[in-house]
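Can you give me the bound-state structure? Components:
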Amino acid sequence: MTAAVRPMQSGQRRLTWRSPALWLTVAVIGYGAWQIGRFGYPNFVNYPRAAALAVVLFGLYAIPYTLLVTGLDYLEPEPVSLIGTALAWGGLVATAVGVSGGQALQGILAKVISPAFSDQWSPAIVGPTIEEPAKLLGVIMIVLLAKGQLNSVVDGVVYGAFVGLGFQLVENFMYAMYAVAISGNGDTVSPVIATFLVRGFLSGLWSHTMFTALAGAGVGYALVAVRRPWWRRLGIAALAFLGAWGLHFIWNSPLLINGFGGGLGGIAAILLVKGLPGLLLVLLLVGAAKRSEARYYSETLTKLDDPGLATAGEIDTLCHARKRHAARRHAKARAGLKARLLVRRLQMSQAKLAVAISRAQGNPAGTVYDVAGRFRDPVAVVERREQEVRMLRGRLLGLGISDAAAPTEVRHRVHWNGLLFRVVLVVAGAILLAVVIRRLGGG
Amino acid sequence: MRANLLGTLAVLAVLASLAFGLPAINRALPADRPLPAGQELAIGQGVAITPPVGARVDVTRTLPNRGVLALVLHGLDFRAEVKATTSDLDELANRLRTRVQNQRGVQVTGDLREVRTDAGVRGLRGTFSSTGRDGIYAAYVANGIGVQITVSGTALAEQVDAVEQSLAGLRFG
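Here's the bound-state model for the whole set.
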């Protein structure tokens, strides 16, 4: 599944309004906004408090996801505009298509097979069959808009995850408002809170963000593994899509629904059995893709063989989030907050330098999302990044820090305390959620 | 640019088939199934109803596992929903009333009045109207099972006796 990074082209072709993909993106996002607005507006009129709370809760919910997903892509972050496009596609286009196509397929199943079959199996069949392709098209549109920007499997994961996140947020809002409407108690907030807890937390980890991240990884592989035969690239992309479809199917299926008895324990067991294997699979794939990308960029910096730009320890540190944080803490302990901030800036500049070098060596395929024309002269960009790194290095030297690597013991230590803390936090959170849901009458 | 155009058209084709193609196929297939006159239908949780003569089952809106039965009757939409409930009849009827009232363009008319099934189960029934359509809603509770029914359409006046007779025949298992 992992593949090397395919360097982005540097400036021969730029995305313009002549691109058909751009027109289609704008048109269908507009169509989706109109469709979703038609659903959302009456809710703001009939249930203003509940609708406002749903927007706030799910808006806040998006923050940790955004930080988590952007954190995956520290070395080569994606443009905000493309991330926004992915979110808008998921939240407006895929949901609008999901509603109309989903209702239709559900109706077809009821008519062709039976209402009982449709009632039992529609969520499992209709959800993945309509929603997964609709979301995957969002990643494909990103490729059509800026193929050069999607240049690693991690990038595919990131765009896929943002399309999925957009879908998840809008779908959860719709479910929350549906819960308010069918409760028949007017503009009350408890159905919103119950939906937020159940759909946001208990099933949020292994939901659309994860499914589309997996499908996006397949697109990333198909684009990046240019040395592999075409059938293998397409086959891996198809397998990743089928994986997303399968995980979605299992999650929505009525299988095991009564397999663990009633009560919160039974519900939690079903959630874990159905969701955890998929989450672990995706985390393993993402981890492998991240290591592959980090190896590529660390080799790029290593080849410079210039400790003034990056020492061996700094290159190793740059490739791991934990070590980057450790290096900043270490710098603060040695020379204060200013040193910490400078190390942070140095790390970002070194990452940008690695990306600039890879772009300067890039192959001439693909369209660059480069509205500002920043990448027109790749050699000049590399020089500018080098100057930036050397300037920061000089300022750190002034504070007595010649090497901004994480301390050696941190680099090799397993953080058992941190791991234990996270496990305790998750268990405590799950218990708290269970209590709150029971109080709200959800259990 | 040619590859971009072809890719864009391919995306458009898939999107259109999902958003418009499937609904077109769905519309082309008939949704209702005829019912033999006098046949009793299970709604769920042991509750059954004998639909008015001429009623047809709407298979797209009937959800047997969730206790929802949808019928069409000469231009009327007939929806019955059964759920286990801890609410009493007044609460259930008021919830249904609020739900009906919250539909766009719908106005609940008059107060709830008491009705009984042939077997003596107590219920509450009200009426509502919207542009060109009239409707009735009714709720029944027996042994922790609640039934909520809405019937609406342009031809309610002609069918109201048949509907009332069907509601009176509601049977709790």
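A couple of observations. DSSP finds 15 helices and no strands in chain A. Residues 363-373 of chain A have pLDDT under 50 and may be disordered.
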